[in-house]
Amino acid sequence: MQFTWDYEKDHSQQVKYFLKEKGISKGLLAKIKFQGGQIKVNDQVENVLFSLAKDDKVTIVIPAEGEHETVLLDETPIDIVYEDEHVLVVNKPAGVSSIPAQYHPNGTMANRVKAYYKKQGYENQVIHVVTRLDRDTSGLMLFAKHGFAHAKLDMQLREKKFVKKYQALVSGRLSDLLAHGHIDLPIARDYSSLLKRMVSDEGRSAQTEYWIEKRLTEIALVDIQLHTGRTHQIRVHFSAIGCALLGDDMYGGRMDLGIKRQALHCYDLRFYHPFTEELLEFKQPLAADMEAVVRRFEE
């Protein structure tokens, strides 16, 4: 895989600084230098200290990544929302983890995507997860298909150019929910649990914005946008204001309303394509189990 740019500056610049501006990380640059890649200027192989002049043509040849040998294959089909040579967007079902863990090495989205890559015969089979979802959260999830795309998408995440919106079903003190509100409560680890988080003055800043989409007799359907990315942020915040997510037994959600997992779905994902810079927007309908609960309360 190769990428080419024209150098348009009037002053000279070393190749390594130019490539850094283009999103080439130190790790990727090391792979290019030491694992069979190339850096060319005007079709001549050069090193990273070469000084560029206006109108030079800079090309990088990125070596194939092969595969993660430690990531097992899971042949379960994936629900592909969008794919090109650089990115893959999938619809993750609830009950499936994003990545393997020590005691759960298979059955995750990473395992399924690897099996898909292998079946398609893709040159790059390393799994690059850009946006994760909790095991019991459903919805849109983004993978980069090679390391350069991953680095550029990570840069967008750091610059807060991504938009991720969720839908949740909540119950409790619904009268306290505004039509459009903000929750600004710091979140810390709950040391009584390996997994749980809690609101604490000792925690890190966390902001959640929400809009009420539907108010029903015992539940509300809420649209949510995160402005920070703390672990379990949506679940912790809505539990803290007395409106825990349905099915979320960890944070006090009701388990008697027809859903046994946290009723949380990533339905809206927007980001700029890492190479064309086109704004990509994807939306996914509410998950079937959540939709069934809404319909039951609407009847």
Structure description:
- It is a single chain.
- The chain has about 300 residues and is α+β, with helices and mostly antiparallel strands.
- It has three domains: about 1-60, Structural Genomics Hypothetical 15.5 Kd Protein In mrcA-pckA Intergenic Region, Chain A (Roll), CATH 3.10.290; about 65-160, Pseudouridine synthase (2-Layer Sandwich), CATH 3.30.2350.10; about 165-265 and about 295-299, Pseudouridine synthase, CATH 3.30.2350.10.
- The protein is built from six helices and 20 strands.
- The protein has helices at about 15-20, 25-35, 110-120, 145-160, 235-240, 290-299; strands at about 1-5, 15, 40, 45, 50, 55-60, 65, 80-85, 85-90, 125, 130, 140-145, 165-170, 180-185, 185-190, 195-200, 205-215, 220-225, 265-270, 280-285.
- Strands 8, 9, 11, 12, 13, 14, 17, 18, 19 and 20 form a ten-stranded mixed beta sheet that branches.
- The longest helix is centred in the middle third of the chain and has 12 residues, at about 110-120.
- It is elongated and about 70 Å long.
- The mean pLDDT is about 95.
Keywords:
four-stranded antiparallel beta sheet; alpha+beta; 6 helices; RNA-binding; 299 residues; EC 5.4.99.-; RNA binding; Pseudouridine synthase; Structural Genomics Hypothetical 15.5 Kd Protein In mrcA-pckA Intergenic Region, Chain A; single chain
